[in-house]
Amino acid sequence: MTEEISDDLLVRHILGETTPAEEQLISQWINESNTNAKKLEQFRFILESSKELAMESPADEEIQWEKFKAKRASNRNSIIVPMNKPYKLWLQIVASIFLICGLATGGYYIFNLNSNIADKLITVTTQNNVLTDTLPDGSTVQLNSHSSINYSNNFKKQRTIKLSGEAFFIVKHNADIPFTVQAANVNIRDIGTSFNVKSKPDYLEVIVETGIVKVSRQAASIVLKRHEMIHLLSTDKNLSKETNSDLLYSYYRNGQFELNNTPLSRIVAVFNEIYGAHIRIEGQDLNNIPLTVTLKKDSLEKMLQILLLTSPELKMKKSGDEIILTK
Questions:
Q1: What value does the mean pLDDT of the chain take?
Q2: Membrane-spanning regions, if any (predicted)?
Q3: Do the domain assignments include residue 27?
Q4: From CA 28, how far away is CA 31, in angstroms rounded?
Q5: CA atoms within 13 Å, Cβ hemisphere of 39
Q6: 78-83 contacts: CB < 8 A, separation 24 or more?
């Protein structure tokens, strides 16, 4: 197993300042688990957000770093995330931000230290937790683990959110000020609704639970209604919708997987993504086996055992890291 990668090394990797040996180490670390890959994606998202602030701030970075350390030392109600080995280039980017890890929420909130730009950008980030947050306009967002959003502190006048990862939005509708989520070069605009957005490096998924959503990319757009969804690959040129037939997308909100005649192939795909597992179905005739049961989110092993009890025709065997479902 690769040794733990420091935050400092991840930042230098994103900035292109690592050695070939360090790049090889990071590559091995990324390939070890989905969690590691998500952490890198999260760092990249935060760094890009921070760059926007740094470019707008004329303040001397060394002065800002001293302000950061002083503020960190004086804040007794929050856990402050320290920067490992701050150096010139990284300092120019992060010196104007203040990171707070809330004790109650477990999410990171990023604010400007520079009073001249203190109303520019807020970033909320989760690690291994799910976070529910109320936005300034009264809308709510439930942020899945390893996800981030950022938005202007002037949100009530410009309701635009940038998302990396996955989140469920319950929007307080305002026809005069549209609510827009930006993810993977796609705009998702509320027309009075609640919806789930999952943004990954290679695809975007939007599922509408209530109301109507307009999804746009470049000149193309499509309207989604209740129980409709779009699964958009980064290479797709056309927008096409389909019916959403299950509630598996809501597992991180209610802590359970609701299966209602759900095909085994769909369950396996979801488990593989969430747990970073390698489950394979042996035999095409098993793909469409319907399963109906509610699983409380638990270890992968326990949930698979419940599936076996639900469908006695299923058997499970292991081969290395691979889990094989067969007859």
A1: 79
A2: 89-111
A3: no
A4: 5
A5: 20
A6: 78/102, 78/103, 79/103, 81/108, 83/7, 83/8
Considering the domain boundaries, does residue 310 fall inside one? yes
Nearest-angstrom CA–CA distance, 85 and 292: 52
The Cα–Cα gap between 47 and 251 comes to 29
pLDDT digits (tens, 9 = 90+) for 262-280: 999 999 999 999 999 999 9
- Angle at 178 (CA atoms; ends 124, 213), nearest 5 degrees: 90
Nearest CA to 304 out of 244, 320, 275 is that of 275
In a domain, 123, yes or no: no
Angle (CA) 300 250 259, round 5°: 60
The residues near 175 (Cβ < 8 Å, ≥ 6 apart) are none
User: Quick one: how many helices (H) and strands (E) in the chain?
Assistant: 8, 19
Residues 6+ apart with CB under 8 A from 172: 137, 138, 139, 179
Q: Which of 318, 288, 284 is nearest to 301 (CA)?
A: 318
Q: Is residue 77 part of a domain?
A: no
